[in-house]
Known about the structure:
Chain A is mostly helical. Chain A is built from seven helices and no strands. Chain A has two domains: 1-87, NADH-ubiquinone/plastoquinone oxidoreductase chain 6, subunit NuoJ (Four Helix Bundle (Hemerythrin (Met), subunit A)), CATH 1.20.120.1200; 126-167. Chain B has three helices and no strands. Chain B has helices spanning 3-24, 28-53, 56-87. The termini of chain B are far apart. Chain C contains 27 helices and four strands. Chain C is mainly α. In chain C, 75% of the residues lie in helices and 2% in strands. In chain C, helix 11 packs antiparallel against helix 15 and helix 18 runs antiparallel to helix 19. The B-C interface holds B 19, 22-24, 31, 92-93, 95-100 and C 593-594, 596-597, 599-604, 607-608, 611.
Amino acid sequence: MESVLLYAFSAAALTGALLVLIARHPMRVALALIATMLSLACIYALLGVHVIAVFQVLIYVGAVMVFMVFVIMLLDTRDPSFVNRYSRLLVPGVLVATLLAAGLGHALARHYVAGPVSTSPADFRLQPFSAGFLREYWLHFELTSVLLIAAVVAAVAVIQGRGGRDG
Amino acid sequence: MDRTQFLLALSVALFALGLVGVIIRRNALVMLMCMELMVNGVILSLVTFAARTATASGAVLALLVFVVAAAEIAIAIPIVLLLVRQRQTLDVGAYARLKG
Amino acid sequence: MHLLTAIVVLPLVGFLVNGLAGPRLGRGFVTAVGCGLPILAFAAAVRCFLELTAAGGAPLVTDDYTWAEVGGHSFPVGFWFDRLSAVMTLIVTGVGSAIHVYSTGYMKDDPGYARYFAYLNLFLFFMLLLVLGRSLLVCFVGWEGVGLASYLLIGFWFEDPDKARAGKKAFITNRVGDAGFLLGMFLLYHAFGTLDINQVQTAFAAGAPLAVSADLVGILLFIGATGKSAQIPLHVWLPDAMAGPTPVSALIHAATMVTAGVYLVARLNGIYQHAPLASELIAVIGVLTAVFAATVAVAQTDIKKVLAWSTISQLGYMFLALGVGAYGVAVFHLYTHAFFKACLFLGAGSVIHALGGEQDIRRMGGLARRIPLTFATFAVATAAIAGLPPLAGFFSKDEILWFAFASERGGSPLLWGVGAVTAALSAFYMFRLLWLTFLTPSRMTAETAHHVHESPPSMTGVLVLLAVLSAVGGFLALPQFLEPVLPEPAVRASLARFETPLLVTSVILAVAGLAAAGLLYARGPARAERLAARFPGVQRVLSGGYFIDGLYDLLITRPLAWLSARVFLRAGDQLIIDGTLHGLASLAQRTATRLSRVQAGGLQLYVLLAGLGVVVCIAWMWRHV
């Protein structure tokens, strides 16, 4: 049962990824990406890493992709990139990516060593996870907040330009 | 093949597809979304290992990557907006200012 | 400084002064330097000559100055004044100075006056190097130098492209001959390790086995002589050389430069006495040239061209004499020819000057009364060249014909026969010239006839001097004087009884030529033109010089020009050399253009390249990790 679900969600993720490449309208691309991300969240949940599954949906889909959708709605998408959706580097790009995938895939196929599986399942439910997280990784947590503030300041600075042009 | 190998293969596939998308799509926003796809591929591999070795640090790392991705998009979008305002188009091909 | 060196250096000083500062120094100064220094050189030559005769013919020698020492070889520069050099030097400086004086009148109105005298002095310098040189190397420097001076002087009025082209033609044709000279010198040096003339001749006299064939060296050196002395096949430059000023034609192309070839063979008689094949070749070419040039001269209509072809013909006589071993006689003819040919050329110059530039004899006539002095001197010189006794030309020409017939070293009746025909033709065309120019009724245009005037004394004085020398010069027993240096060849005893009959025949031939000319031309060219109209082909061939110029153009000039333009210019220079350079430059440019696309800000290209880099890293890891 589990593996069937796994394969199904994987297929969904791949389909979504392919649609990202193929769809013409950016809104459809965004929706395809959201589908992929949701499938990935399901996979995480299937793996038992519930925390990350939730955060995937909350942060990635709920914040990042929504932001993206807003921007797509803001901007005029009917420009040359709508008509020619592929750049000049279509063939070389596909080639390089295939080579990359082939190389990594080869490494995965030949040199994969099935390491030890943990006997005791980890507790990836929210409460135990967060307690452990804040106990041991509080510094990382604080640093990420610094990062976020820096990002906000940067975004404001970028948009404002020099000397307060309207952004 | 076992589950880990399969998921790692999926991760490689997502990463490669994201890379292809960055190279071949002309729309700036779609390029950004493909970059998100790449990051998702990486997160998948992190979570796979976390699940397999049942350590919390893997999940923590995944969480931190979420934060970084969010910060990244927070800055990338305004930059794209400025670019679009300057060049009046989302076509990445038109952004190349230095002629050969 | 030894007096010999002074003879050579004085004209050089004249060249430097007039050449560098002439235009600024005023005409009088240029004349004083330009004429005075050659006259001084002549005086020095006379002094040396007196010293020579006082010493009973022992040669004067200067100390050697070493030009170069390369490896074990040293090349000295020295001068040698024996009887032969004495005769040549006196002719060069004497006739040369006279012509310099003549030029002061002829070139009076020319803006290039100073340049002209500078070049003339340069020519004298090189000619003296040639005749006084002790080694073949110095002789060769003079040889080349007179070629250069000739080029400069033929193309003196260089603004006219035809005249400039004539100068080029002379120089290039000379160069072809010089190649032969050089090869001969190389062989001599390789064989004997020295180019000193006396040492070389001693080496040949020492007998067999010789390190190098005398015939080969003789022929090669003779090739050089053909170029310089306008023999077949390198005679084509001399008629064109008439583009230069007439005194130049007189000095260079009659009296001195063209005789350099004769001098060379005479000087190197030590080689030619052991080179029967070369001598035979010289005799044959000489006599062929003589008759060939005489036939062409019959049909010429430009006064200077007639004289030019006549010079070629007379030079042929000199080579005929050299070829049969009569070296002294050849030099004798050289000496008499210098006088009457220079007189003829200068007389022609006087005529041209009087007529304001007209050179076509069909438009002359009736000048005998108008310019009597020119006419008288011209007539004397014409009689001399025709070989009428007792003028100078008779003696020298008769001796040549005698030795051509009877010399033990290659004389034959055939050579004599052709020579005799040439003598008759010479008389014929020279008297034709005299009649058409001076004695027939005038065919001048009214305007030209109005301006006819006798030349100034600077010109006529020289004419008189040369005419007198043409008359009496034959009485100087030159071959006997030169006997110690240039031995006369033995004569076949069986033929000795023909000497007087042949002498009489020469006189008859000369008179016959005169009579024929008188018959045809006494009343003007009309009669001869009617005769020529009956044989139009012959007329065309003769006046065109047997179309040898055309032949050379077809065989040599055009293929060379084609080769240069198609092969060397198009393929070699433009395609290969320029093409390589342009190709390299454009390769660099194209590469830069392609590479600069990386810098163009193409985002996706960057990502692609990064991905490519990652792929490469993974591939590398496969093999090494």
